[in-house]
Amino acid sequence: MAQPDLRVILDGDSSRLYRQGEQVKGRVVLVLQEPEDIRALKLNFVGACITRTTRPIYLGANGADARKSRRDFEERIELFNLERIFVSGGSLTASKHCWNFEFTFPLLTESRHSRWGQGTKYAKDPHPLPPSFQVQTNSPGGQAAISYDLHAQLVRYGSKSSVRANQMVAYQPKSRNEALEVPITSRVLYNQTFKPFKSSRTAMDKVLRKVTRKASATSISPRIIPTIHHPERIAPRQNILLGLSLSVAEANAEPDERLECILDSLTISIATYTSSRCGKSLKQPEDVMSKHMTCIQKQNMNKPLTFDAPTPLTTNFRLVDDAECVPSFRTYSINRAYSMTVTMGIRCRERKFVIKCSMPLEILPRMTLAPLNTRVRDDDEVPVDPLPLYMPRAPSSELAPDYETLYSLSPTPSYARSFADAISSSTGSGASTPQSGASTPASEIEQPVFAVGAGC
Length: 456
Hints:
The radius of gyration is 41 Å and the shape is flat. It is built from three helices and 20 strands. Residues 371-379, 414-420 and 422-438 have low confidence and may be disordered. It has helices at 203-212, 403-406, 419-429; strands at residues 5-10, 17-18, 23-31, 36-56, 70-92, 96-104, 133-136, 143-156, 163-171, 185-188, 224-230, 233-234, 243-248, 261-277, 286-298, 303-305, 311-312, 329-330, 334-348, 351-363. By secondary structure, the chain is mainly beta. The chain folds into two domains: 5-59 and 66-171, Immunoglobulin-like (Sandwich); 185-363, Immunoglobulin-like (Sandwich), CATH 2.60.40. InterPro entries: Arrestin-like_C, Arrestin-like_N, Arrestin_domain-protein. This is Arrestin-like N-terminal domain-containing protein.
């Protein structure tokens, strides 16, 4: 008995990346070799969040099953489930049958979890769909995945097994910011204030100043407050603009002309944090993974820092649009977040300072490519020099040279004659027509002698 052939075929490219609100179109194909009684033929469009992990089992001396050293945990949460039934009872002939389908990605998830189910880092209420995602956790056998699939199932009568077919669909949310310019946020680093000069006050002077609350006549070193300018949200292909500005802490104070700060080193790194949980209780296992990558590392920059305007730290610094650049999201059992750390080495005269700042970074979905400008320009827009008109001319009376004259089979000397010998030979002969044979008799031709091992 031949097994039915069931397939799910998408229209267009099967590896296409779908966006929010777009339609998924295709057809379900069933090929039967013989008539078949069908109980049901249905297609489900399912979005699911799947987490798996393992934990070691600690057994006592009287352990029942000491061969199994780890316990498996798995949880599957459906984000949505759309169903369409093509056949509900009936008989199909031995032939090829096709059914068209059309689904639309929902705007929000359909599931809802309790308030205290998953903790604060996971979503509980319906939220926008997360992107397609899959990663291996740091636990043996651990996995966290978000998948969108088309499941076709053929249910037959009797003891015959069901026939299933599956087609995966890639999804990513729409970008919330299509502009190439990224808004910049300023963050004042009060806790990293530094003094470029060493204080010349004595210990007694410091005590008297605190008691009397009066400034002493001794010169006080100014305090410099750094401010970093950075974006909070970024998308692939957008320029990550980072800047640093300095200001004097004292009120109504201006920077001294002798004060000069130099940016000596710069290190920028981006960290990825992924957490997944199995189970609805807080006691269930949770896998937390982190990955740090250094993007920029420069030494001996010797770049002056100004007090009146921010000094740019980066130029053409962009995210690589690859599989690792997954947009930030938070769903029922998986969380994906990023942070950026900037470490700067500043030199003021003989003193050196290190300023380090870590900030959360939200990665947005990749921007849609703008359509190419394929409009054909008119002749009036682009000046073009016209080609000259074709003018017919009379055929030339010059004949092609004779082949036997150019390539004579008579023996010729293997050495090259000089240009002066050729001129004297042609003028001394006085012939008006070129000779087709060699001018040197065959008896006087010297055969070349090749020395073995001689260089060129």
